[in-house]
Amino acid sequence: EAQVTQNPRYLITVTGKKLTVTCSQNMNHEYMSWYRQDPGLGLRQIYYSMNVEVTDKGDVPEGYKVSRKEKRNFPLILESPSPNQTSLYFCASIGDRRTGELFFGEGSRLTVL
Amino acid sequence: AQRVTQPEKLLSVFKGAPVELKCNYSYSGSPELFWYVQYSRQRLQLLLRHISRESIKGFTADLNKGETSFHLKKPFAQEEDSAMYYCALLLSGGYNKLIFGAGTRLAVHP
Hints:
The complex is a heterodimer. By secondary structure, chain A is mainly β. Chain A is 0% helix and 51% strand. Chain A has strands at residues 4-7, 10-13, 19-25, 31-38, 42-51, 54-57, 65-66, 76-78, 87-94, 102-104, 108-112. In chain A, strands 2, 4, 5, 6, 9, 10 and 11 form a 7-stranded mixed beta sheet that branches. In chain A, strands 1-3-8-7 form a 4-stranded antiparallel beta sheet, with no helix packed on it. The relative contact order of chain A is 0.32. The mean pLDDT of chain A is 93. The N and C termini of chain B lie far apart (41 Å). Chain B has one domain (3-109): Immunoglobulins (Immunoglobulin-like, Sandwich). In chain B, the strands form 3 sheets. In chain B, strands 2, 5, 6, 9, 10 and 11 form a 6-stranded mixed beta sheet that branches. In chain B, strands 3-8-7 form a 3-stranded antiparallel beta sheet, with no helix packed on it. Chain B has strands at 3-5, 10-14, 19-21, 24-26, 32-38, 45-49, 60-61, 72-74, 83-90, 98-100, 104-109. Chain B is mainly β. The chains are: A mainly beta, B mainly beta. Chains A and B meet through strand 4, strand 5 and strand 9 of A and strand 5 and strand 6 of B.
């Protein structure tokens, strides 16, 4: 089944403890992106990647890192999480540039205490 | 500045009533607009694109450049339409720039 898979789905952590949210897609998509969803703010783009080894900042990149060593994986790294990074995170990919249709993961709910 | 505005956080209607979820955008270029939907316990998925001019699950949306709007409409709401709806604007120059509105939760009551 074609899909985008994120892990973990739920995580509670403490300030300063490094964590990684993994994202994997099996559709051979070149473009991948991370969003955070906060009440009243919709989805805001954190980072995106146009292809392997090509990444760039989105609208809210502060406090996050990403890497794209393989086409299928696009992990989101929080080196030193803070409470303002408590949010719902979505990974997404696009296969067909003509349609611009995003395929989303199920989301990862992160709480930083 | 580019922006997508969905003025209603919650829209509550009864089954069979007409539905209109509002979306306004601000963009000086040529807009490409989408509606995404998230049903309970499911992932976000594309509902429709203005370019395709389709009707999906009875929903339609027409781009009105004069009013800079892309409202989502359905003549007769069903309970299974209850979900979170996001309007999104694709900026020209690449699909890396997709701006989402804050979302509207549609609740359809029996």
